Amino acid sequence: MNNNFIAQIQNLNLDFKGKKLFNNLNFDILENKTTALLGSSGVGKSTLLRCIADLEIENITDGKILLKEGTNIAWLSQENSLYPWLSILDNVQLYHHLKGTKTKQTLQKAKELLSQVNMSKHCNKKTYELSGGQKQRVALARTLMQDANLILMDEPFAALDAITKIQLQDLTCNLLKDKTVVLVTHDPQEAIKLANHIYILKNQPVILEKVASLEGTLPHQLSNEKLWNLQEELISKLQGSDI
Amino acid sequence: MKKFLTVLLPIVFLFILWQSVIVLFDLPHYILPKPKDVFFQLINQYSLLWEHTQITLLEILIGIIIGCIFGLGSAFTLLYFKKIEKYLLPILVISQAIPVFAIAPLLVLWFGYGMASKIVMTVIIIYFPITTACYDGLKNTPKQWLQLAHTYKLTPLQTLFKVRFKASLPSLASGLKIAVCIAPIGAVIGEWVGSSKGLGYLMLHANARMQIDLMFSALFILIVMTLSIYFLTDYLTKKFIPWASHLH
Questions:
Q1: Which candidate, B120, B129, B107, places its Cα nearest to that of B181?
Q2: Which residues contact A189 (CB under 8 A, 6 or more apart)?
């Protein structure tokens, strides 16, 4: 495998509900970059993400998903990903809690991460007492706690209000910089703000089209004109990709 | 206070209605005894009633525990052995189609006149709601929670006990609340068919001797006992699964 890649999808074939969703799909994930998968609802973005996380094994008919040796994956989904029977601190230490490897050090790290996501004062609350945005902050802390080298995010901010969404996007960029992230989203603005590489998924079977490469520090603070043009380009491509 | 009144008022109304029916239709005590006669029986026959209550209560509690063990075991089996599912599910439904009354004499014959036959009857009655409730809960574990477990590389057994089982608790609690309400039916039917102890036996015995007030007092205890078990279960499930009501 090329050293720059953390994962390579080679000739992936996948059937979903009797339809061919992926037909010899090829896709590489660059290390230490954020890659956004943009597409309309139902096109197969989340399915592709689940393939990388080895969650679609029963639907894959052919092809390979190669992960760099030693890759461990963290998963951040849209909502409702906290275990309600656990405390907030145990949710942040979820991996250690489930594996029975909790220690004073993991507890200390969990507290520090909660502080980084501005949730320190809420850490004694029950998970069901938190708002949607607060839950995602805790989920973000849990993702960081895992110290994974590949982070998969499945529309993590889709269920949030506009202001909370912006706050969490900024927080995510600050905390996940230099990490390898694959972000699934249907929001072009979010993709522009958070990703180095933007792909659009269209048609069925899916075609992946790379539409932008944005280098520099995240979140991208582009000039209004550049932002507008890129957004227009993404929207027009998305409109043409309706399934 | 308001909550207390909402419970008390319907009971008071029921007693007034009961007394009114007796007065209005001039019913003799062997058809419908007066509330005060039933109350006096509760006081005067306290030791007799307590002796039989203990037996029935024990049958119900043991039946609930064994029914839960079998129910949970069956739910786990249904979830993890898909091949067994198609054979076990019809058996489950058939077990519910057979009226317990019809097999009660057989169970007494097989398991004897003692507590065993009543416990078996209670187990049969609660097995279905416990199994289906637990199975539904295990099966409908939110996919986000399972995806996390998968990325953490949990073994199937770890996923079952640390994620799926915990996720199934709200559904299991609903099934358990139904089960504890119907469990006394199994125990009492068993006692009616063949026994020498228990509230069901006492009711039959009193009925045969026209001691309808005693029969009603036994019935009253049975109702109080069922309600107590139900409210205790409700309290415990709310205490230990406080997040259940916030799931959706």
A1: B129
A2: A231
Decide if B243 and A126 are in contact by the 8 Å CB cutoff. Answer: yes
Residues shown for chain A: 243
A182 and A115 inside one domain: no
The domain boundary, picked from A93, A128, A147, lies at A147
Summarised one tens digit per residue, pLDDT across range B182-234 is 999 999 999 998 888 999 999 999 998 888 999 999 999 999 999 999 999 99
pLDDT in tens, A84-135: 999 999 999 999 999 899 999 999 999 999 998 888 888 888 888 898 888 9
A175 close to A146: Cβ distance less than 8 angstroms: no
Partner residue facing B150 (CB), from A55, A80, A126: A55
Domain residues for A16? 1-72+149-243
A9 forms beta bridges with A27, A65
Amino acid at A192: I
CA distances to A133, A137, A152, A194 from A220, rounded to whole Å, are: 22, 21, 20, 7
| Interchain contact, B147 vs A53, CB within 8 Å | yes
Q: Quick check: ipTM above 0.85?
A: no
Which domains, ranges and CATH numbers included, belong to chain B?
39-242 (1.10.3720.10)
Task: Tell me: do A183 and A212 sit in the same domain.
Answer: yes
- For residues A228 and A188, membership in a common domain is answered with yes
Residues 59-118 (A) with a CB less than 8 A from some CB of B: 73-75, 77-81, 83-85, 94-95, 98-99
Q: For chain A, what is the domain count?
A: 2
CB contact (8 A) between residue A85 and residue B241: yes
DSSP string computed for A163-176: HHHHHHHHHHHHHS
- State pTM to two decimals: 0.83
Block means of pLDDT (10 residues each) for chain B, 248 residues, are 83 91 89 90 92 95 96 91 81 81 89 92 92 93 90 90 94 95 92 89 91 93 94 94 78
Interface test with A, best of B140, B148, B158 (most A CBs within 10 A): B148
Widest CA span in chain A? 53
